[in-house]
């Protein structure tokens, strides 16, 4: 393994391959930082370009773009609350409040460091544990996927301070997720005969609308006075912050790898589950959403680790772990290669070159992110009266480019108005996103599980992994409900005792 990695490293360090990696990182930075453009779109755009390249250089390019795009989505998420990629949506909840407090540089530094550490952990796991992790992933079937989705949904009890708001938001997201074609039967649901609705509600229009457009509306109607920032000092290595987020980084990186290797789950889900676990493990869960370092470190470490973990089933089993890796699988087939159990033996030089390239990409993120972010932070000195329309224009172009649909643009604007109104009620918008992302997973896997057991619900408790996950979800949800009730009871009792 070590010999293979060193051999791959020697291939990567060739001048042309280094230039390809640097170009890929820059392309990923730009694409990930612009709302509406994701790793999937960039990989699809560059897929024809790789046809004329040798296989090693082609897959170094595609995987490097993939990794750097997952990172750079945090830039606009933190600066403007406009997540550049779906993986960065959770980062905006604590990153943007820090920017509002004048701590944009601190927030960006935490995000860069967390992304690089998560990516390195994921890459090391990819190199060392590919056979082992792939065998673990094979033990996950429909009941385990359903239990994992339920575990992720239980975080609504900790969001926004009001359980009812969280449940309503999750319910809205779950309902929106059902719109479109039933994935199992092919029948239309809530489409009202519209071909646009038959494709379902896209995640990009919803995220961009709820967060970016609603924020522009809030700033435009709130009498915001522009205060130019002369300099944003992005400090990546801060010993005080490192000590504070060390446990969160470790936990989230490991969790991200574990979730990333599960086919079809993806880095967005890893970020959400990791954020929910950070809330649960925190001594001050009420501070999340108000701008704390752990709220940035958890999703960024998890989504970058998950992005690398998603490559494990691709290389070891020939099964894509995410949407982007599905495109990369198509690129392998286009080059006459078939990932799978024999791929490690037949194409070890290519695989280890890709592994070494991803390893170096994480260091390039640390090296090049600061000057790149400096260019973006210059935009903070532009008056918001000029910046707001630019953000809206970028959101429209990015949303339209996903499916070339004006319907998605109108959806985005509609969700922008909805998000603006819900925020006035202090409604936790993340609960809606949780429902939309985890809803299809929960529904599909629930129905498949019941089909496997012929309608017997005990299948979830008869399988050790699913039973454990559901038990943890129930216990955590119960604690999340009972603890606030107990605190309220104790507060009332102390008040009545002091009054008497």
| Strands ordered across the widest β-sheet | 1-2
Question: Biggest β-sheet: count, sense, barrel?
Answer: 2 strands, antiparallel
Structural class: mainly alpha
Considering DSSP H and I runs of 4 or more, what fraction of the residues is helical? over 70%
Report how far the terminal alpha carbons are from each other: 73 Å
Query: How many domains make up the 3D coordinates?
Result: 1
- Gyration radius (Cα, Å) is 22 Å
Model regions low in confidence, pLDDT < 50 over at least 5 residues: 224-230
Tell me the β content: under 5%
Description:
With 500 residues, the chain is an all-alpha fold. It has one domain (2-499). 75% of the residues lie in helices and 1% in strands. Strands 1-2 form a two-stranded antiparallel ribbon. The protein is globular and about 80 Å long. 50% of the residues are buried. Residues 224-230 have low confidence and may be disordered.
Can you describe this structure in just a few lines?
By secondary structure, this protein is mainly α.
Q: Which SSEs are present, and which pair or pack?
A:
Elements: H1 2-12, H2 15-33, H3 39-50, H4 55-80, H5 92-100, H6 104-138, H7 142-153, H8 163-178, E1 180-181, E2 188-189, H9 195-198, H10 203-221, H11 239-260, H12 267-281, H13 293-309, H14 311-317, H15 323-334, H16 343-346, H17 348-377, H18 384-403, H19 406-424, H20 429-453, H21 459-462, H22 464-499
């Amino acid at each position: 393994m070590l010999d293979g990695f060193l051999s791959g490293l020697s291939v990567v360090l060739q001048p042309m391959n280094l230039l390809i990696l640097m170009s890929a990182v820059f392309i990923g930075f730009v694409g990930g930082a612009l709302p509406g453009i994701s790793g999937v779109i960039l990989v699809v755009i560059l897929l024809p370009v790789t046809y004329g390249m040798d296989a090693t250089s082609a897959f170094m390019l595609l995987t490097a773009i993939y990794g750097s795009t997952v990172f750079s989505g945090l830039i606009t998420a933190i600066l403007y609350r406009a997540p550049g990629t779906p993986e960065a949506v959770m980062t905006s909840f604590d990153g943007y409040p820090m920017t509002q407090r004048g701590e944009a540089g601190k927030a960006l530094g935490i995000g860069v460091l967390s992304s690089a550490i998560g990516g390195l952990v994921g890459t090391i796991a990819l190199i060392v544990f590919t056979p082992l992790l792939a065998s673990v992933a094979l033990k996950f079937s429909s009941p385990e996927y359903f239990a994992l989705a339920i575990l992720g949904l239980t975080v609504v009890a900790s969001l926004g301070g009001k359980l009812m708001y969280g449940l309503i938001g999750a319910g809205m997201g779950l309902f929106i997720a059902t719109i479109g074609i039933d994935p199992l039967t092919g029948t239309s649901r809530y489409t009202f005969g519209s071909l646009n609705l038959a494709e379902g509600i896209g995640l990009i229009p919803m995220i961009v609308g709820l967060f970016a457009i609603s924020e522009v509306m809030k700033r435009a109607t709130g009498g915001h006075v522009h205060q130019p920032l002369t300099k944003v000092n992005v400090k990546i290595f801060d010993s005080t912050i490192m000590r504070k987020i060390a446990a969160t980084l470790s936990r989230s990186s490991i969790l991200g790898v574990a979730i990333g290797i599960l086919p079809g789950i993806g880095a967005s889900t890893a970020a959400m589950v990791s954020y929910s676990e950070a809330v649960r493990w925190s001594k001050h869960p009420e501070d999340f959403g108000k701008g704390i370092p752990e709220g940035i470190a958890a999703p960024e470490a998890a989504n970058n680790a998950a992005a690398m973990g998603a490559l494990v089933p691709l290389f070891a089993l020939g099964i894509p772990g995410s949407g982007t890796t599905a495109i990369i699988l198509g690129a392998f087939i286009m080059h006459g290669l078939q990932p799978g159990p024999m791929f490690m033996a037949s194409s070890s030089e290519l695989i280890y070159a890709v592994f070494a390239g991803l390893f170096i990409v994480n260091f390039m993120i640390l090296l090049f992110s600061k000057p790149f972010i400096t260019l973006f932070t210059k935009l903070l000195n532009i008056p918001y009266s000029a910046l707001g329309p630019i953000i809206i224009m970028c959101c429209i172009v990015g949303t339209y480019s996903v499916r070339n649909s004006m319907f998605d643009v109108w959806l985005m604007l509609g969700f922008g108005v909805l998000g603006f109104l819900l925020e006035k009620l202090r409604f936790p918008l993340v609960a809606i996103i949780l429902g939309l992302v985890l809803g299809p997973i929960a529904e599909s896997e629930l129905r498949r599980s019941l089909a496997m057991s012929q309608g017997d619900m005990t299948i979830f408790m008869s399988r050790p992994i699913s039973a454990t996950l559901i038990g943890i979800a129930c216990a955590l949800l119960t604690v999340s409900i009972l603890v606030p009730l107990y605190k309220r009871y104790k507060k009332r009792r102390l008040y009545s005792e002091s009054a008497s």
